[in-house]
Amino acid sequence: MSQMLEPDLSVVDLRSCFVRKRNALLVRGRFSPLYLDYYLHLMQHGLQNAEPLDQMLKDALAALALHLCSRPQDEGCAWTIHVKEPQRANVFVTGSTRPGRVAGRVFTEDVRQEGEAMFIAQTTRPDQAPRQSMIEFFGSDMLKAVETFYTTSEQRLTRFFRLEDEEFVQISAEPDCDEQWLSELTLEQVLEIETTEHLTLLETRGYVFECGCSIERLMPIIMRLPQDDLDHIFADGVAQITCPRCGAVFRTPKESFEQWRSANS
Predict the structure, then answer these.
(1) Burial of 233 (0-12, 13-18, 19+ CB in 10 A)
(2) CA–CA separation, 138 vs 123, rounded Å?
(3) What span, in angstroms and rounded, lies between the C-alpha atoms of 177 and 156?
(4) Is the pTM of this model over 0.85?
(5) Residue 204 — very low, low, confident or very high, per pLDDT cuts 50/70/90?
(6) Span 47-58, pLDDT tens digits
(7) What is the pLDDT of residues 116-125, one digit of tens each?
């Protein structure tokens, strides 16, 4: 598996298996290492997500990684999940398989204060037009939200299961799937599925919590700002820039920005 990732990041191995006779795809993995790097990221940048938004983001990261593992390797995804409970917020997650990484953050400021809970999915692949879908869902359960996205937008029955020790399982219908079996599947049955069903291992993919952002990559965003806004953020000579994808905080002197702008104008 070829990936350009930081060597000290903890890789979560996700296994995808075909459930024979049921015609379903099963993906599973334990996300403890990825969550550890997520919390280290928060500590590094002085960030903190209040409960239960923190758990909602973690669930969305796990669901996205499982989703990516079931998709073509050159596909990238970004989900914006607008929830009304426990407060109006946007849970944003994004990721890819080449390299295998996911990242995300929670927005609680400047969030729309009306309307239903929404799930907005954007999917990209090289040499293809981006795809976007938008659906409504109920509640604030991220796993249920993704299941609704699959049923409504992907038109494919999918179930998510939360196991112990931060392990998750996704089972999705393939053509000619035994959908009655899938719809009635219980957590207890999932725990025993490797002994009760015939599983064929398809592949293993690795994912980490990593955005890949840097001050150099954020410079183009700064350069697009109007001059009045530039004067404001550099009022004390140093701008503080927040990554829109993971919330990482970077600081850059005005002199460094001007040098970059001159070199890239």
Answers:
(1) middle
(2) 23
(3) 10
(4) yes
(5) very high
(6) 999 999 999 999
(7) 899 999 999 9
In angstroms, the Cα distances linking 261 to 37, 119, 190, 214, 219 are 33, 37, 55, 16, 8
- Helix, coil or strand: residue 146: helix
Where on the phi/psi map is residue 46: left (φ > 0), alpha (ψ -120 to 50), or beta?
Answer: left
Integer Cα distance of 264 and 58 in angstroms: 37
Two tokens at 16? 């995808």
Q: CB–CB of 37/208 below 8 Å?
A: yes
b (16+ CB within 10 A) / e for 114-142: eeebbbbbebeeeeeeeeeeebebeebbb
* Farthest CA pair distance, the chain: 66
Measured from the Cβ of residue 186, the count of other Cβ atoms closer than 10 Å reads: 9
Please check whether residue 19 is in contact with residue 223, taking contact to mean a CB–CB distance below 8 angstroms.
no
CB 55 within 8 A of CB 79: no
What is the per-residue pLDDT across 56-71, written as a single tens digit (0 to 9) for each?
Answer: 999 999 999 999 999 9
Residue 73 has pLDDT above 80, yes or no: yes
pLDDT value at residue 5: 47
